[in-house]
Specification:
This protein has 2 domains: about 10-40; about 40-210, Umud Fragment, subunit A (Ribbon). Helix content is about 15%, strand content about 40%. It has helices at about 15-40, 185, and strands at about 40-45, 60-65, 70, 75-80, 90-95, 100-105, 110-115, 120, 125, 130, 140, 150, 160-165, 170-175, 190, 195-205, 205-210. Strands 1, 2, 5, 6, 14, 15, 16 and 17 form an 8-stranded antiparallel β-sheet that branches. Strand 10 (about 130) and strand 11 (about 140) form a beta hairpin. The longest helix has 26 residues, at about 15-40.
């Protein structure tokens, strides 16, 4: 009996298959990278500067479309459709280092802002705060944007004398006012350095969750 005759693919076809697969992977990775750079991402909280709103180890979902469209590897926005509002929790590039920070916007361009003992005044009017619980003077609910809790049991941190926020700049603070390195130390943040709005805590203690910010 004669042996079956097999037609082998030319050897040159194999590199082409490999190249096609690599191209597909490249496109997929480019889409994923572009989505993370321009649409959405997540951020793991390293410190307690935003306690009790978020705690160390939390994973925060970030909406990078909230204020505009960013291009991958771009320093600023291709286009914007409104800046951060007072009370927004945002991720941003530190003006001092390349670190990514999580802070709350407390004043926007044109605001006259002052910070005393961890409490914010806008236009000379203190932002309302109320005790979170009876006799809990160190945990206060601040009514700036959505009401949120701030901590001052370690003191209020550095004060900030009355100043007007320049155009295109923002003042950001941590909710743990006595234990936060923020705009009172490194100054106003350029809008281009704000990477997106933190939408929610999506993982806490290794368990999926959804805690809007």
């Amino acid at each position: 009996m004669s042996r079956p005759f097999h037609v082998r693919a030319p050897r040159t076809a194999r590199p082409r298959v490999v190249l096609r697969e690599l191209a597909r992977w490249g496109v997929g990775l480019s889409i994923l990278f572009g989505a993370r750079a321009s649409l959405a991402d997540h951020y793991q909280v390293p410190t307690g500067s935003m306690e009790p709103t978020v705690v160390p180890g939390d994973h925060v979902c970030v909406d990078k479309r909230a204020y505009g469209l960013r291009a991958p590897l771009a320093e600023g926005y291709l286009t914007t459709w409104g800046g951060p509002a007072r009370g927004d929790v945002v991720v941003l590039r530190s003006p001092e280092t390349s670190d990514v920070l999580l802070k709350r916007v407390v004043a926007v361009p044109g605001d006259q802002v002052e910070v005393r003992d961890g409490r914010v005044s806008l236009g000379g009017v203190p932002v309302p705060v109320t005790p979170r619980e009876p006799r809990a003077a160190s945990a206060l609910v601040e009514s700036l944007g959505a009401p949120h809790t701030i901590r001052v049991e370690q003191g209020g941190g550095p004060d900030l004398e009355p100043v007007v926020v320049p155009p295109g700049r923002y003042l950001v603070l941590g909710d743990n006012r006595g234990s936060s390195h923020d705009g009172r130390s490194f100054g106003f943040v350029d809008g281009a350095a704000i990477l997106g709005r933190a939408a929610s805590v999506c993982v806490r203690g290794a368990s999926p969750t959804w805690l809007p910010l």
